[in-house]
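User: I'm putting together notes for a lab meeting next week and I want to include a structural view of one of the chains we've been expressing. I don't have a solved structure, so I'd like a prediction I can at least talk through. The sequence is below, exactly as it appears in our construct file.
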Amino acid sequence: MTNPNPFELPPLPLLANPTNVITKRIFVAATRMNDGKTTACLGLFAALQQLYPRVGFIKPVGQRYVEVEGHKVDEDSYLLDMIYNVRVPIESMSPITIDPTFTRRFLTNPRETYTELVDRICRAFDRVSWEKDFTLIEGTGHAGVGSVFDLSNARVAKILDAKVIIVAQGGIGRPIDEIALNKALFDREGVEIIGAILNKVETEKIPQVAHYAGLGLERLGVPLLGVLPVQKMLSAPNLLQVAEEISGRWLNAHASGANERILRVVVGAMTAKGIIDHLQPGNLLITPGDRDDVILAAISATSISGTKAIAGIILTNDILPHPKLLELLAQTDLPVIAAAEDAYTITSKIHNMTVKTQPQDSDKIPVIKKLVTDHVDLAKLLAAF
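Assistant: Thanks for the context. Below is the predicted structure for the 385-residue chain, given as structure tokens.
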């Protein structure tokens, strides 16, 4: 008897179907990280709920996770459950999470581990899809992510017998090139791509992008399902996220300022007179703590208007204001954070932040729902079924 080929994957198991009713399912993939896949899933789930009374969700393989009731759960599964109360066990919505030693453990014993992982995915899918009309499946990155442990997005979509939507950043040439590359992997697995969604397109460019990208995608055999306009606030962090990113410590208004949305960063290197025009809601002021004139200007603007003139202040280089000035700040609800680093380093860190939607982002969820409802052709999508 010959030994099995260690590089040959075992046959796929059949998904359980005790009710003899096939649950419709869509696998949402992307061409790269941070293209808007989670945003698309959040919006699509809400849209599907308007048409189907029972919608399930699963992210079979997750790379970023949180601890929930003793289980490692992908953060997107947790996010969606917190927003929509999916009413399935949270551990089934996230059957596999990739911890730092996962890949090494797999490569030590790939064949048996693969069989176990596929079984875990299939059992979880059956559970989240039990008595559901539709199941939304979120992938992890581009089509090839997970290939190192034989569970690429293309492979997982095949395992779950799902049709695929690809999300890509807007444009004409680049997204078509990237979708073509991803399509090759899905084609190899025999998985059907039923459409593409282009994300983060400037509003005035949408007609042009929709026309020419639509023509280019048509040549690939991939329908264009929608073009989503860029929404600056969806990629804008709140002040709590900024504080965590720069390891800052709160000096004032922690409770009331944590959820302030940062739309623009202003470095307070000018005089108080020059800073006046920048004291606007959504602006984050970065300045040394010894710039009493700039801080006083922010305090005065807040006191006069009766509301926060700006989203907050970050004091650099661990320089604190005069104690009397701190007393004045304490009489306002102006958020203030102290940080050890200089203005350039802090500004760079904020600029390079990857901002993920959080369960507490109540201001983002209505925007995401409307974004998909208004700009994705759901009828065209569902025609594939």
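A couple of points you could mention at the meeting. The domain at 24-234+361-382 is CATH 3.40.50.300 (Rossmann fold). Confidence is low (pLDDT under 50) at residues 16-20.

User: Perfect, that's what I needed.
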